[in-house]
Structure formats: structure tokens, C-alpha cells
Amino acid sequence: MAAPKKGRRPTGAQGRPGRALAIILIAMVALTAGMFLTHQTTPRLGIDLAGGTSITLKAKSEPGKPDAINETNMNTAVGIIERRVNGLGVSEAEVQTQGRDHIIVNIPKGANEKQARDQVGTTAQLYFRPVLAFADGKPIAPQPTPSSGASGSPSPSASTSGAPKGDGGKSQSPSPSSSATSQGRAVPEALMATGSPSPSPSASESKKADDAKAPTPTPSGADAAVADLQAKFIALDCTDEKQRAAVAQGVKPGDATLACGKRGDTWGKWLLGPAGVDGKDVKDAKGVIDTQRGQWIVTMQFTDKGSDKFAKITGELATKQSPQNQFAIVLDNEVVSDPYVSQALTGGSAEISGGFTQQTAQDLGNMLSYGALPLSFQEDNVTTVTAALGGEQLKAGLIAGAIGLALVVIYLLAYYRGLAFIAIISLVVSGILTYEIMSLLGKAIGFALNLPAVCGAIVAIGITADSFIVYFERIRDEIREGRTLRPAVERAWPRARRTILVSDFVSFLAAAVLFIVTVGKVQGFAFTLGLTTLLDVVVVFLFTKPVMTLLARTKFFSSGHPWSGLDPKRLGAKPPLRRSRRTGAGTDAAAAVSAPVDAKEA
After folding, report:
1. 395: number of Cβ within 10 Å
2. Peptide bond before 323: cis, by omega within 30 degrees of 0?
């Protein structure tokens, strides 16, 4: 007789509720301690609740590189963009991948928000290219006027460093032999299709100027592509936004190209040679103050491979005249600086000096250090939310959650009476666990609570309450069959458990599918829904069931008090009520006989 009794123990046994409650209590204490140890005592709020800017970047496929958009390159890009934004001092900026080819950049409201937005937009690759020619940003027209002392700025004197873009060389002394044109910089005649202006308006040289107006043959050794690039350089108008956007589309690092950039408040244009150094060859760069000279400079450290490349390109440029002794730093097809060189820079380090402010030096250092991305991106969506609007949305979400919770509580009290106490306590425990885990996930994986996530939490209230209702109804069914509360609690659990697990599995599966197939804020809803569904299982198994087992031993519930929600008379149980489950063959036979009788009476 002992063996059958032991085999039926899982169905009717009282279990060990104290052990389960101890486990969930320890988990709550551990999570609370983790919140204080990580100094993350509140959930991290998303942009739509805290205010700020959310930028969605989409990776672009480049010609000849169909497989470039992959998990490795996307993760590398995330790390670079994150360091670039955080390098500006923007606190708690969030950068993460969404789907296969999207990156979400969330920039909190703050003093450096605009600056961070500007640098996030510069997402293309970084190159160091030799300068072949420079001119003002507007199209070039032949001007047979004296070129010496032209309106442009003179070329800066040779140095081991260089002048930053925007300085124009004004802080440096002019070189002994300036070859400036009316465009403000020397443009090699070999790269000009219209010739250079006459040095003087004398009659003897008028003929030379007229001859210069005639089409000049392509220089020896240049091919048709170079001639085409010359024509494009002459016609390029960098003051036109559309032309700036299309100036270097599809250009490979090994090709000569055109680029636009700003010098102060005016646009300039550059004719550039093939890239000599890739941005990935820059190990570190930063804007620092030179205490000896009392000015801001940008220091650069190169990798071993980059050091050899940089020494080679600077050695070649040092022997040439301005502007061909300069190299352009090109980011996102825009020249951000074009320092000149007077000697080969070896040793793996270099500095750029001349007219920097603290902000321009730090910005350039940040671009050099974090600018080399393995992919090109385009802005897919930009959303800006003010802090006031975010606060209003958070308040509205909390009010909606409170209303939903209140309605559930009212229903439970009206229908389940005393059992509602167990459901409410379980909801509180579920809420505490959800709050603690969300707070820790903000620090661990960058999870941010946004408005859709709040909606997911509100929906989860109903899912969690549904699990309690399933269990309570199973207990009531057992009481209607004539069992007392303690056996009813244990017999109802296996049936309720199966239903709860199936229901939660379906909810979790829906949340997982929604998380995988969507991007952006909708994933916040799916993530919260999935998290709270898992917590529902934990709470029901480790808290609700053990508490129900303990309360079944109290007189209030076991006696079927009218306010307990388990009154046999209200539930329609037929007397005589079974007091306990007796073991033995006689009891089993009696149970087998009673079931048809009850069914017949029903």
C-alpha cells in the first residue's frame, strides 16, 4: 500500500511552500542589492519619456561589397559611434543595433545634444588624401588678371605641423614663393583646363593670356579620367547642397576625387589624390593644449601599419609646393582639415597646430579617433522629444497603468473576495521584480523604458491576473466536487499549472516573434511583454502557489468563510462535503462510485 501512496504524492502533497518563498525572497533581496551596488535605482528612461533625440541610421550597401552588412561590421560601427558620441561628454547616450541593418542612436537631452547629433550624422569612412588643387567653392572662370597678392589667403609657411581648416593660414607668415590664384590657393596648371591668369596686364603678355584661354591639351601621362576630373573640378559649385551631396558618390579609396569643405564661413573645393592613410590606421587622436606655445593642437597616434603609410605620404608631400604639400582629412566626403607638411613625419605620431580653439581641436581629435566606420550609413529617421513632452507622456503612461491595475483589483475583490488578497500581493511581487530587473538591465544592456514598453507592462497586468484566475477557478472546481480546501488546493495545481504554462508560452512566443521582426520602439513593447510573461511563471510557481498552500491552513479560508471567496454554499457544492482524502482501496472505490452519482444528480 505504501508504494501507490508514494506514487500519488505529487498530486495531493502539501509541498514545501516555505522553501519556494525563501527562494523568491532571496532573489528580490539580491536584485535590490544589485541596484544599489550599480547605482541604478531607477529604470533608464527612453527618449520619448526623458526627452532628447533618437536617430535611426540605415547601413548602405556599397558597390562590390554585397556582404559588408554583417553582424561584425554592425557591432564595430556601434562601438565607434558610441565612443564618438560619449567622447563629447554626452552622458548615457545609447547606441544599439536594430534588426540586420539599422542602428538606433538615442541622445539624451543635454548641453552637448546638438554637437553629438552633428557628429552622429558624419558616419562615412575617414581618409587622409594628398591635396592636388584647391579653389574657392564656386565654379572657376578664366580671369586674365594679376595673380600675385590675390584676394585669397597666402599659403602658410612650411612647418612640421599644419594649419587647421578654417584658419586659412592667417596665423602663419606667407611662404617665400606664393603661387596663389584669384581663387585663394595655387592651382597647378597641369590640373586646370583653362590655364592660369597672366602675372601682369602688359600688352606683351596679352597674347599669352589669350593663348591661355584656348583649350589646353591633357598633360602628358594623364588619361581621359583625369581630364574628366579636371572639368568636374572647374565646374563644381560647393555652395550648392545637391552638388556637395553627389560630389564623391561611388568613389573608391584608390581613386582621385573631389571634395568640399568649409574654411571659416565659406565653402572651398579640393582636388584630391588617392587615399594614403585610412582612418582605421589612427590609433588615437585628441585635442590638447600646448603649454609651451599656449595654443590648442591636435595630436595623433598611428598604428604600426598606419605609421609607415603616414611617413610615406608626408615624405612625398614635403618636397612639393603649396597646396600640393598638404593632405586633406576627409570624413563623410567632406574635408574637415587640410594641414601642410614640411618634412616626413615618422615615429608613429604627429600633431596639427595653428588657430584651433578648444572646441575645434577636440572635435577634430574626436573625428580622427572615432571616425573610421566599416560601413556607410544614411539617416532613416530622426525624432526629437522635449523634456516637458517626455514628462507628460510618462505621467500619462503611469496614469493608464494605475487605472488598469485599479480595474483588475476591483474585479478581483468583487468576484474572488478573500482570494483577491493573494492576487494583489502576487501582483505587487511581480511589479517589484519587474522594476528591479528593468533597472538593472538599463545598466547591463542599455535597456531604456519607453512608452511602448510601458504599454507592454500594462498589458502584462492582465496576463498575470489571468494566471491567478485560472488557479483560483481550478480550486473552486475541486470544492464544487465536494473536497475541502487543503486537498482542493493541491489537486487543482497540476491542472492549473498546465494551463498557465501553455498560455504563457503562447504570449512569450508572440512577444519573441514581435521582437525579432520589428525595429525601433516596438521592440520595447515586445521586450517588456516577454519579460513580464516569464516573471508571471516565476511568481505563480514560487509565490502564488506557496502562499495559497499556507493560507489554506488558516481557519478563515479552510472553513469557507463567506468573504474568503471559497464558500462551498456560494459555489454550489453538494453535501456531504469530503473532509479529507483517505488512503486505501476502499476510498478509491468510494470515489469511483460517487462520481457517477454526482453526475446523475447534476
Report:
1. 11
2. yes
Peptide bond into 487 cis (omega under 30): no
Contact 314, 343 (CB under 8 A): yes
Q: What are phi and psi of 511, to 5 degrees?
A: -65, -40
CA–CA separation, 454 and 460 (whole Å): 10
- Encoded amino acid at 410, one letter: I
Residue 178 CA, chain-centre distance (Å), reads 49
Closest CA to 316 of 132, 479, 459, 178: 132
CA-based nearest residue to 174, from 340, 309, 34? 340
DSSP state for residue 110 in the 8-state scheme: S
Q: What value does the CA radius of gyration of the chain take, rounded to a whole number of Å? A: 37
Q: Are 69 and 101 in contact (CB under 8 A)?
A: yes
For residue 114, give the H/E element and its range: helix 113-121
Q: Are the C-beta atoms of residues 113 and 53 closer than 8 Å to each other?
A: yes
**Residue 217 three-state SS:** coil
Q: Quick check: helix, strand or coil at residue 43? A: coil
Give CA–CA dist 453/526, Å, rounded.
7
Using CA atoms, how far apart are residues 327 and 329, in angstroms rounded to an integer? 7
- The number of beta carbons lying within 10 Å of the beta carbon of residue 409 is 16
What's the rounded Cα separation, in Å, for the pair 512 and 328?
48
How open is the CA angle 489-493-494, to the nearest 5 degrees?
145
Cβ 5 vs Cβ 13: under 8 Å? no
Name the 3-class secondary structure at 284: strand
560/420 Cα distance (integer angstroms): 15
Q: How far apart are the first and last CA of the chain?
A: 34
Averaged over successive runs of 10 residues, the pLDDT of the chain (602 residues) comes to: 46 66 92 88 78 82 70 77 65 74 78 63 71 87 48 35 39 32 38 36 40 45 68 88 77 86 86 86 85 86 88 87 87 81 83 80 75 71 73 80 86 86 91 91 80 84 86 89 87 91 92 83 86 92 92 86 83 59 46 41 37
